[in-house]
Structure formats: structure tokens, C-alpha cells
Automatic annotation (TrEMBL):
Keywords: Oxidoreductase. Gene3D superfamilies: Clavaminate synthase-like. InterPro entries: Isocyanide_synthase_DIT1 (IPR007817), TauD-like_sf (IPR042098), TauD/TfdA-like (IPR003819). Belongs to the isocyanide synthase family. GO terms for molecular function: oxidoreductase activity. Residues 343-599 form the TauD/TfdA-like domain. Pfam families: DIT1_PvcA (PF05141), TauD (PF02668). This is Spore wall maturation protein DIT1. SUPFAM superfamilies: Clavaminate synthase-like.
Amino acid sequence: MPYAGNPPSPTENKVSQILSIISAYRHRSATVPDRFSEFAPELEKQLAETVSRGEAVRFILPAFPFKAPAEGDKHKTLGSLPDKAEEIALQTLDGFADSIAEIYEGGATVVIVSDASVYGDLLKIPDADAFAYQQELKKLASSLGLTHLAFVRPGTLAGIATEEAKTLEEYSHHVSKTRNLLDGTLAQAVDPSEDENVQATSKHYDTALPQTEDPEALKAAMLKRGKAYAKLIASSAESTIRLSIHESNNVGKITLDLFPPATNPDFITPWHGTVAVLADASVRIVDASTVDMTKFEVITNHEGRPWLLREKSDLFSWFGMELDFEPLYPCGMLVRPRDGYGPYRFEDVNMKRVRRLALSTAPLLLRGFTMQVEKEVFRSKARELGEIQMWPFGDILEVRENADFNMNNVLTREAMPFHYDGVFKTVQDEKTGEWISVPPLFQMFRNRAASQSKGGLTLFASSRNLIPLLGPDSIPLEELRKLKWKTFTAANEAFGGHELLLPFIITHPESGVDTFRFHEPWPESKCVAGSSEPTIVRVVDWPLAESDALCEKLTRLLYDRRIAYRHQWKAGDFIFNDNAMTHHTRTAFENGHREHWRVHVN
């Protein structure tokens, strides 16, 4: 947020950065006016107090009660335990907090308070189901290595229990006492029309609650409990920032999207829906009761638990191979042999299937495949994918530290800017003399050695996730479509040396959808190795300050954890990436041998 008067202090700068992250993650309701700007000054004050003390920014989120109960033969979910929907939601919340921890040394934590003891009896959920759901949710967060999440129950907040229940008997005892408190001293009358947020919750209940003989009575009971619950949270967690999963005006509490927006247009919570992988490999959050199950199959996880729905398609049928197709967060897909099968020979992979799948979901990661006579097979399989694009060094680039070949920062250990390959691969127009960028459509990687040192991640940012997040906080899509950017980097042994004028939004050459094009500005201060050169990026016909501001916003989007998949390489990994749909970058690494083979294909 802007500050008047003297230049902002370090604390004010940090608060502004944190507030920008909160603002970016907030859900903008289609039915409730967004009044976040009215709440921002209060948040600024609270954040300033937290940051000045060097304490962690703590958020509290009432959510994740239990899976929605079945209504007769109508099942919104795949079962009573967490599945892929909860996995994605937890990753989103952890990524939100990690984004703050990355720029603020005090860190951030999202405290998840289960609603089960608040609403379970009203919805006739057995304590055993709610307890099992919560225990499995914590196991899931731990297995994913999510370090910015904490789990508590309302009874712990209220002081009814000194520690979390470890058995069903303890849990049921705490739940009973919690409900007595909510229906007793904390109980308050509720007017469903008293403010915009209550109105939004009431409207949500009209469709979300199960059918009963007296739906208005159930809704009234839910709203009353909810108001008492909100009072408990406010009194027990005064120094925290309240988050919500309900539509709201973003005043007093901030509503978050628990999924990348492109995957959840209907704003379904993970406990009211499930993940569906469609025939084109895209991911959607759906109410399972609305799905035509003759066209979908239930996919289980390694424990045999129903995990997600997948539309039947030959994309997921590779002859002679028993494979899992697992959506990566927040984009891409992992293909690997099922437990008890493989490894399979890369020579036997159908590259037409790979091409179709990579065009539908990028990056496409193959793990658990072997390759003999390495370079010959790698080159041969690349030709099956398409026409190989040649470079001055040939077709296959061995991406490893190499001071003897100047390719800017590509063959170094330092970090790289977000970019798409081939932006500086140029040909000259014979008629106009203009230098034209001719980037390849595909990248094909094979990891030969994965450094075990800190860093060395490859980030892939998908336009499918980025474009839906364009808007007032950055720039609307239709405005960006009208603009061009110009860029320059010095010539090296493979590329560079010509200034280029390029559009921000292009039509994908295969699918015809909008895709984003950009190169992260890279100043000389970030160039460490002797071969590294800066990359200049400007918005055409914009004043320098405004151009820099937009470039900073677009760069921030590329690194957003709802947009960019962070890949930790393992030896033997293959990645096929749609270079038109994605951007990628590399984080710096300290030591240890790291090597990929890369080939470009059109």
C-alpha cells in the first residue's frame, strides 16, 4: 500500500509486501461487493505490530470439518476421508504462507480450525467420521512436507482441552463440551440479512446443506452456531488474521480460493467435491453427484483409497504399460509405473500420446522409465515428437556447468530469469530486414544427474493458471493484449544480439487459446558468472517507471505458487514441456554435479 510523507521504513516496506500477497490470494466474489480496500488499513496496523516484533504472521481458518454426507444415492464426494481435493487445498494454503515466509524472516502460519465439533451434530455426522477425517488430514499435510500449517480444534481454542484429542473417546468428550459452550454463553441471535457476509453464507447454505423436512430450521441452527463460533475464534485468537472459505466482502475476514482459480469456477470446497481430470488432462473441482459416471472412472491412491475422478480417454492408455497419471500442483502431470510394475523402457513410449498429453498439461513428467544407448535413443524419440530445432552447438544441449561455452547464464550454477526458450532464437525477414523470434514448441529434458545440494529447482509457470489471475492488481487481459514488450540481451555463442518487439499475449500455435509471453527483466546485479549478461525488458511506448512497475507485477505472477510448479529433479526424470504455454526458470544451486540433456522440437 502507498505511504504518504517520508520514504517508507523497512517495516512499512515489509508490511506492504505481505499485504500485496494477501490481496493477491483473496477471492473476489461474483455476488458480494469486494471491500478489501476498506479493511486494508486495519490489516496494515495489525501487520505492522507483528512485523515490528519480528513475530510470525498468523492466520486462522475455520474449515475442513468432514466430507459432505450423502443424500440418498447422491454423493458429492468419493468417500469420508481426505483425497486429492484436500491435497491441493492444503498445498494452496501452505504456498500462501510460504510466499510470505520467503520475503519476511518472521515467517507465516495458517492455523486450520476444524468445524466438525461446531456443525457435525446438526448435519448428523458421526464423531468417528469427523475424527478420522481430521487425523488423516494431518497425516496428509505431513506426508506432503507442508511446514506452514497447524491444526487445532475449537475446544482447544476455548480452553476446554489442554491438548488435541488422541482417541475417539477423548474427541467425543471435547466435542460435547464445545457444543455446550457454543449453545450456552456464546450463543447469539442471528439475522440472516444483518450484513453482506452473513447474507452470503445464508445464500450458500440454500444449496450446500442436505435436504431435510425443515431446511429453514437447519439453516437457522447453522447460522446461530456459526456466529457463536466466530465469537469464540475472535476472542481466542486476537492477534491472528481471520481467513474464510465462504463468499464475503473481505472486511473483517479474507476469503481465500483453496484451488488455483482456473480449476474451480464454481467455488466448491474440497469437502463438498472432488478432483476430476478431464479427457484433455485439465483439472476441475466438481460435485461428484453431477458427473456422468459412465464416462469417468474412480482412481485410487497407493493405499487403495478413492482419490480422484478421471474421464475415460486413450490419452491415459499406453499400450503394454500399467501407469499412474497424477496431476502435479499447481500444473502439469506425473506419469509413472503403478506400484508393482515397471520400470518401463523409454524406447517403448508412444510419442504421439506424449505430444498430445504435453499439449494438454505442461510440464509432463515421466519418472520410472529407463533408456539404453542414451543419446541415440533420446534423439530418435525427439524426432518421433516432431522436427528437432538445431542450434550452433547441434541438437542436444548438455546443460551443466561449463565455463568454456558462452550461453549467458544457462551453463552456470546461478539463478536464471523466468523465460521461454528461444526468445532470442532469431531469423531475419528477407523483405523487411526485421529480426523475428522463432521459439520452439517443445522442450524435451532428460536428467542425467540431480544435484543434492540446496537449490537447483526448475520452476514451470503455466499460462492456463496465470491468465485467470490477470486483473485489477496487475493488468486486465484485454489491456495486456494491446501491448508489446521489447527486449535485448548481448550476443553469445548461441543466441542474442538483436532487440526484439514481442506481444504479451499470443494465440497458441496448436490449441488456439491465449497464452502469455514474457521474459523476466534481469539486471546486471543478478549476473554472477563471468559469461552472464543482463536482459533488458521494457513495455513499448510506456514511461520507464510505469513499465518497470508492470514488469514487476508480471514477474510476481510467474513466481506465484498457484501458477508455478517447483520441480526437484531426480536422476532419470524426463520432462516434456509446452514451451508456448509455459515459462520456466532455475533457482541457484551451491555445489554438486547437475546435468540435463535438452532438445527443442517443433
